[in-house]
Design brief:
Layout (H helix, E strand, L loop, with lengths): L1 H7 L6 H13 L18 H12 L11 E11 L15 E11 L15 E7 L5 E7 L9 H11 L10 H10 L4 H9 L11 E2 L4 E4 L5 E10 L16 H10 L4 E9 L19 E14 L19 E3 L4 H18 L16
Antiparallel strand pairs: 1-2, 1-9, 2-3, 3-4, 5-7, 6-7, 6-10, 7-8, 8-9
Helix pairs in contact: 1-6, 3-8, 4-5
Length: about 350
C-alpha cells in the first residue's frame, strides 16, 4: 500500500502547485481539530489550531473559523427501514426525521469566491423522535491528507502562507510531503479537483469511519455518503464573474422542487482500515441505501436555523458509535472552541443595528 501511495503522488515542479496545495489544506482543516495534551510538554490545544485557522482566514468576528461561508437548509430524512437491522437508532426505522443542515465551502473568509476552493461540505443535525440527535459533517472529497493530529498540525505549519509573499514556502511543503507518503491519495485527488457549479450535484462523504450497533449488540464498521438524485449539469466550473453562484443556484433549484440525496452506508470488510482516513475502502463493499435526505428550503445563515448549530461529529444517537480514528475527538474539541468564540462575539459584529441577526 505504501508503494502504491508513493507512486500516486504527483511530481513537485512548481511553486504554483504548492500554493494550490496550501489552499486545499486550509480548506479541509474543518475535518480536523486538536485535543489538548497530545503533544505534551508543548501542548497543542484546540485554541492553537483555531488560532491557526483564524490567521489564515482573517478576522471575521461572529463567523465560523472554517467553512465560514454557507447557507442553511431544512428538510427531512425519509427512512426506508433498510438499515434498521444494523442499528438501533430510531432514525433508521421506517418514517421521517426532520433535520437542520448547512451547505458551505471551506475556509475562514465568509466573503470568499465560491470557485476559490474545489471542496463543498454538507452538515446535518437530525432531530430524532426520542429526543436524541445525530450530527454529521461531510465533505465532497474522498480522503483526508494525513492520519493523525500530529501530522496535520505539521502540515498546516508547512503550508502556512509566508507573510512576506502570501504563499507557502515550496521547500517546506516539499519536505513535508516527501516525509509523508500517506498523503499520496490526497495529492492525486487535488491534482484534478475542480470547483463544482452546484451544491446539489455533489456526493458528500463522512471520510471517517464509525460503527453501527444492532439490537443484538453486534457492531459493524461503516462510512457513509449522501449521493444526489440530481445529475451533474454543465462542466463543473464556476459561473463566470459570479463569486456567489452556489447559493443562487441552490435557491433556483429549490424553486422548482425539493432536492434529494440517498444516504448510503458502506460496510467495511475484515481488514479494512477503520482508523485511517487517508485510505479508501475498495469498491464492492456491502452498501445499504438507508433512505432519502430531502431538502425543502434554504435561507441565509445570518438568521437561519443552522446559525447556532455546532455540527460536532461526536454527537451520536444510540446505535451509532465513533471509531478509534484519532481525528474524531480532535474535530469535536476544535468545533467546540470555534463555536464558543463566534457566539461570544455576537455583540461585536460591526455594521449591524441588530448584531444577533448578523451572526452566522
Amino acid at each position: 500500500m505504501t508503494d502504491e501511495r508513493q507512486e500516486s503522488r504527483p511530481p513537485v515542479r512548481t511553486t504554483g502547485r504548492w500554493v494550490a496545495i496550501g489552499v486545499i489544506v486550509a480548506a479541509v482543516a474543518a475535518v480536523f481539530g486538536y485535543v489538548g495534551g497530545w503533544l505534551a510538554p508543548e501542548r497543542l490545544t484546540p485554541k492553537r489550531i483555531v488560532d491557526e485557522l483564524q490567521s489564515t482566514g482573517g478576522e471575521h468576528p461572529g463567523f465560523r473559523r472554517n467553512h465560514a461561508k454557507g447557507i442553511c437548509v431544512t428538510g427531512r430524512f425519509e427512512s426506508n427501514g433498510a438499515l434498521a437491522a444494523f442499528s438501533t437508532a430510531r432514525l433508521f426505522a421506517p418514517g421521517n426525521t426532520p433535520f437542520v443542515g448547512r451547505l458551505a465551502i471551506p475556509g475562514g473568509n465568509p466573503y470568499a469566491p465560491d470557485g476559490s476552493i474545489p471542496i463543498r461540505s454538507f452538515a446535518l443535525r437530525f432531530d430524532l423522535a426520542d429526543g436524541e440527535q445525530w450530527r454529521t459533517g461531510m465533505n465532497a472529497m474522498p480522503v483526508f491528507p494525513v492520519t493523525t493530529p500530529k501530522a496535520f498540525y505539521d502540515l498546516t505549519v508547512a503550508t502556512h502562507p509566508d507573510p512576506a509573499t502570501g504563499k507557502p514556502d515550496p521547500e517546506k511543503a516539499k519536505a513535508f510531503f516527501g516525509a509523508h507518503p500517506e498523503t499520496g491519495p490526497f495529492l492525486a485527488w487535488i491534482k484534478s479537483a475542480k470547483p463544482s457549479a452546484s451544491y446539489a450535484t455533489e456526493t458528500y462523504r463522512s471520510i471517517n469511519a464509525f460503527y453501527l450497533r444492532d439490537a443484538g449488540g453486534q457492531r459493524r464498521a461503516v462510512r457513509w455518503q449522501v449521493v444526489p438524485e440530481q445529475g451533474p449539469e454543465g462542466d463543473g466550473g464556476a459561473a463566470a464573474g459570479d463569486a456567489d453562484f452556489l447559493a443562487a443556484d441552490l435557491m433556483k433549484r429549490l424553486g422548482q422542487g425539493p432536492l434529494r440525496w440517498h444516504l448510503q452506508m458502506i460496510f467495511a470488510d475484515p481488514g479494512d482500515p477503520v482508523d485511517d482516513a487517508t485510505k479508501v475502502w475498495p469498491d464492492g463493499r456491502k452498501l445499504v441505501d438507508a433512505g432519502t435526505v430531502v431538502v425543502d428550503a434554504a435561507e441565509a445563515q445570518a438568521a437561519g436555523p443552522c446559525r447556532d448549530v455546532n455540527y460536532d461529529p461526536m454527537i451520536l444517537p444510540r446505535g451509532i458509535e465513533p471509531s478509534d480514528d484519532p481525528l474524531l475527538p480532535a474535530r469535536s474539541s476544535t468545533y467546540a472552541d470555534s463555536f464558543l468564540r463566534r457566539t461570544s462575539e455576537e455583540a461585536h459584529v460591526p455594521g449591524t443595528a441588530h448584531p444577533k441577526e448578523a451572526r452566522p
